[in-house]
Amino acid sequence: MPRTKEQNKEIRNKTRQLILDSSLKLFANKGFHGTSISDIAKAAGISKGLAYNYFVSKEKILNAIFEEALNSGNFLQDQLNNIDDPYDKIAFIIQAMFDYMKNEEEFWRLYFAMSLQPEIFETSQTVNIKFAQIYLKIIEKLFKEVGIKEPMSEARLFFAGLDGLGLQCFFYRDKFPFEKMKKYYMKRYSREGIKKLNM
Questions:
Q1: Among 8, 72, 154, 156, which one is least packed by beta carbons within 10 Å?
Q2: Around Cβ 78, how many Cβ atoms within 10 Å?
Q3: C-alpha–C-alpha distance, residues 83 and 57, integer Å
Q4: Where exactly are the structural domains of the chain?
Q5: Which of 137, 167, 129 shows the shortest CA–CA distance to 155?
Q6: Please, are residues 191 and 87 in contact by the beta-carbon 8 Å criterion?
Q7: Dist CA 131 CA 125 (whole Å)
Q8: Predicted local confidence at residue 140, as pLDDT
Q9: 132 near 159, Cβ under 8 Å?
Q10: How many CB atoms lie within 10 A of CB 52?
Q11: Distances (CA, A) of 28 to 36, 45, 91
Q12: pLDDT > 70 fraction of the chain, expressed in percent and rounded
């Protein structure tokens, strides 16, 4: 019995995701330049020709991986719309950022490795700019709502701090005081913490 259009679409989506997941692991562990399409196809359990049927190059796969990361950011933005209190929104963003930092180690390994490789730095820079355009505005608006005196400067400091913590988490791994730093961020940007920032 022939498959329906919906079944074919589901199979294509699963195969595409399998390619992306396999590529992320390989890029993170072997490096972008150390990974071939053949390596990706083998890890995904598909033929090299089928892999090319989905993505014409490694660069396209890399772009798709980062597009997924940005899309998860859009999902987070949708969830924020269901929260009324600006302090709760700030706490939700902090929790989500730390969760992503902890649970997506391979993505961060790839992200930081790319930042050190001039040939593919432009891709990570583009992702950074897109992410900043979305979240800097959100955080700036929230900081303005809660009365922070220089909301954009504090928003930049907020994300620069998270970037730095992500890098330390990446290098120190199990030795990094993850929960302690999350509590510190939560405290700094709590209702009481923000009052102190404004003194």
A1: 8
A2: 8
A3: 41
A4: 1-56, 58-197
A5: 137
A6: yes
A7: 10
A8: 93
A9: yes
A10: 12
A11: 13, 19, 30
A12: 89
Cβ-contact 199, 148 below 8 angstroms = no
pLDDT tens-digit series, residues 95-139: 988 888 888 777 777 777 766 666 666 766 777 677 777 788 889
**What phi-psi label fits residue 137: left (phi over 0), alpha (psi between -120 and 50 degrees) or beta?**
alpha
Give the SS3 label for residue 73. Answer: helix
Instruction: Give, in degrees to the nearest 5, the angle at Cα 91 between 87 and 95.
Output: 170
Using pLDDT thresholds of 50, 70 and 90, give the confidence band for residue 4: confident
pLDDT for 120 = 66
Q: How far apart are CA 58 and CA 39, in angstroms?
A: 11
Give, to the nearest 10 degrees, the angle between helix 105-115 and helix 5-30.
60
Locate 169 and state its tokens. Answer: 């988490």
Q: Domain 58-197 falls in which CATH fold? A: Tetracycline Repressor; domain 2 (1.10.357)
Phi–psi pair at 161, nearest 5 degrees: -65, -45
* Measured CA distances, 22 to 73, 103, 105, 152 (Å): 21, 16, 14, 38
- For 141-145, the CB contacts below 8 A with 24+ separation are 142/86, 142/89, 142/90, 143/90, 145/86
Q: CATH second-level architecture of 1-56?
A: Orthogonal Bundle (1.10)
**Cα–Cα distance for residue pair 160/154, rounded to 1 Å:** 10
In this structure, the chain runs to a length of: 199
